[in-house]
Amino acid sequence: MSTVFFKKAERKNAKLRLALAGPTGSGKTLGALLLAKGIGGKIAVADTENSSAELYEDVVEFEHANIQPPYTPEKFIDAIQAAEKAGFDTLILDSITHEWSGVGGCLEIVDKLASTTFKGNSWGAWSQVTPRHRKFIDAMLQSSINIIVTMRSKMDTVQVDAGNGKKKVEKVGMKAEQRDGIEYEFTTVLDLTHDNYAVRTKDRTRIFSEPMLLSEQAGVLLKQWLNSGSANACINGNQFLELEALMQQAGIDIEKYCAKRGLNSLHDVQQQKFEETCAGIHSIIQRNQQAHQANEQQLHAENEARLENDYQAALKDIQNASHVNDLNRPADYFKGTKYEQQILNACQAKSDMEGWSA
C-alpha cells in the first residue's frame, strides 16, 4: 500500500527565514531591526559584531546577547535554542558570516583538523565539519520563531557611468561570505547596496519586487504574508513529529485517533487546530502523571502501614520467643528500613536478659 498522499496545495502560516547580505555600512543591522519591529513581538539579537546592534537601541526595543569567539556552529545553535526557550518572536543573527569564516568558524575548524587529525587531507576534515554546519542550518529552518540573519559581502569595486562620458569607481558587495548555496535555505534573500537599498536575490513573498529602503512598514507587510496561509492548511513536518511524540507519550492510539476524526494520518491535522490539540494532549499527559504520582503515594503509604504492622508484630515475637530461631521474621527482614536499629536493640536487650542472640 502506498504511503504517498496527494491533496490540494495550501500555503500554511509560516515563520520568517530572511537573509540580508551587504558590505560594511549597507544597513544590514538596522534593516533587520526595522523589519523585526514591523513584524511585532519580542526581538532578540545575537550579535557577533562587537555589540554594534546596541547602537540602535533608541530606534527599536530589543534584547541583546554579545556572542564571542570561537564562532562554532554549536554556539549559533545555542543562540537559537535560547531565544526559543525565552519566548522571543524574532531572532536576528548578526552575522552568520562568523559561523563560516570567523575566528573558530567552519573554515578555521577545517584548517585545524586538516593539519592535525587528517594530516593535510581537507576532504577528511570537511567530513566532520559539514554535518556540524548542517545542524546549524537545520536549527534555523526548524525553529519555532522568525529568523533574520545578516551576512557580510566580499568587497569589490566596479566602474560605473558618472555621466558626461566619465566613469567613477564604486564599492559594492558581490558575494555573501557564507557557504555556497546558503541562499537556498531562506524564503527571502536581499542584497543591500552601499546606499542602503535592498535588492532581491530571491523573494517568495513577492514584497520586494523593486529595490527599496528597508523599513518598519516592510516588516508589517511580511507579517501579513506570514499570517495569510489557509485556515484549512495542514500541519508541517516538524509539527507532525511533535504531535506524534506527544501522542506516544500520552499513550494515545494514533490510528484510532485518526479514524475517529476522518483523517488519513496525523499529517491531515489542520494548522489552526495544532496548538489546541497539543494543549489537550499535554493535559492528558499531566493527568496521567498526577494519577501515577497518586498511585505511587498510595503504594508508599500501604507499604509503610504494612511495615509498621510487621514491626509491631516483630516486637511481640521478640518478647515472647525463647530462642532467636523462634522469631517469625529474622532481624535482617528490617535491614535498610527505619526500624532496623530498633529491632536490633530489642534483640540485644532480649539477649542480655535471657542469654540468646539475634
UniProtKB/TrEMBL annotation:
Name of the featured protein: AAA family ATPase
Pfam families associated with the record: AAA_24
SUPFAM superfamilies xref list: P-loop containing nucleoside triphosphate hydrolases
Organism, as annotated: Acinetobacter variabilis
Domain of life: Bacteria
Domain AAA+ ATPase: from-to ranges: 14-219
Taxonomy of the source species: Bacteria, Pseudomonadati, Pseudomonadota, Gammaproteobacteria, Moraxellales
